[in-house]
Amino acid sequence: MTETVLLVGGGGREHAIARALAATGATLYACAGNRNPGIARLADGFAEVEGTDVDGVVEYADEVGATLAVVGPEGPLAAGLVDVLEDAGVYAFGPRQAEARIETDKAWQRQFMREQGISGCPDFETFENADAACEYLDTYDGDVAVKPRGLTGGKGVRVTGDQLSKAEATEYVRESGYDEWVIEERLVGEEFTVQAFVANGSVRVSPAVQDHKRAYEGDEGPNTGGMGSYSDAGFELPFMTEDDYDEAARILRETVDALPEYRGILYGQFMLTADGPKVVEFNARFGDPEAMNTLPVMRTEFLDVLTAARDGEELPPLEFDARATVCKYGVPEGYPTDPQAGTKLTIDEESVGEALLFYASVDEREDGIYTTTSRAFAVVGVAESIGGAEKIAESALESAPDGVRVRHDVGKPEVVGRRVDHMQQLRGE
Ligand code: AMP
Ligand code: GLY
């Protein structure tokens, strides 16, 4: 039977998912608030329906006869889209609202880790109002991360000793308007992501990826949704050992053991510290940009994972090409603090050469492609080494349109080398 898959979401991550599904012969439909030209071209139909409009999505799923759904972003998961689709008889690959709390509620996530004894949990406390959080900050000895309890698009966390002082963090907590907070010990090391495909008790991990969250080169400036990312030809990254990777994978398995109903992607954001990997956070979906590193080198068909998940079967073992990837995002001028939406972009698709081009939060209108307030497009190089992949990504950016900004340092040999040196220094090697 030909599967009809409804893809929810219109970013770079979802373009990568669409590309992985289009290669399988599935019939693809998609919906998002913005018309992503890359997805629209791969799909048989595209509806401008926000993923958080759960009734609108269910109506579209019914109209197109979806036999499966894939939910890309966290917003629709938080809104309970998976539950509503399931009630309507459509299996969606993604956690139900209750399990999605692992991402959508940071206080719940930390308490869950503590109660279940999951490894890699930093010291933390949760607070129900800003005053209590500030009082704790005044007395806590050491650097901390302060986190609003709910979703903030990756932009709500502040880390003392890195971005700001304790006094500034206290002011941030008081002024930002959020009530509920998690305050936890600052983890020091190198961050990496491992995404696991999860369903029916199976946990299948993929190669580690390192994202670059800060807006500017040299890891300066405010946090963003992620400016670019790289992965190596094996499962580990150059600054980690096989044991470090295995420990991260073990933590993901422990987590799923404690959440047996979980399905979809479980994304572990880890800090590799001098004491091994610790959990910065979990996300309930593919990373964006990380999906653009992982899916292009996945040899196992994503559709086979989806049908096994739906049919209650064990997930197939995953195979990956032994290839490195480098992904670089083009973002609107001013992103993330004051992004210039509504700039018309002229993207020359022919000139990206060997690189893959993924459209992100742009909007295709009759007379062209326009920026929104979020990331615009990404290029991905795939090669035998990170250095080779980086060169492919850079040559694709030579013809980048006006009105976008790129972090050119992502994946450069000296930058990757600095991560290796940093870990050696922390480990006293
Ligand atoms: P999150 O929204 O939880 O991904 O946090 C955004 C970013 O804040 C992470 O990618 C880290 O760079 C940083 N961060 C979060 N928690 C911590 C922590 N406990 N220690 C150090 N950095 C952190
Ligand atoms: N790459 C960060 C995220 O997807 O949350």
Overview in brief:
This protein is of the alpha+beta class and 429 residues long.
Protein topology:
Elements: E1 4-8, H1 12-22, E2 27-31, H2 37-42, E3 45-47, H3 54-64, E4 68-71, H4 74-78, H5 81-87, E5 92-93, H6 97-104, H7 106-116, E6 124-127, H8 130-139, E7 144-148, E8 158-159, H9 166-175, E9 181-185, E10 190-199, E11 202-205, E12 210-211, E13 214-216, E14 220-223, E15 228-231, H10 242-258, E16 264-273, E17 276-283, H11 290-294, H12 302-310, E18 324-332, E19 344-345, E20 356-359, E21 362-365, E22 368-371, E23 377-383, H13 386-397, E24 404-406, H14 413-426
Parallel strand pairs: 1-2, 1-4, 2-3, 4-5
Antiparallel strand pairs: 6-9, 7-8, 7-9, 10-11, 10-16, 12-15, 13-14, 15-18, 16-17, 18-23, 18-24, 19-22, 20-23, 21-22
Helix pairs in contact: 6-7, 8-9
The structure holds adenosine monophosphate and glycine (GLY).
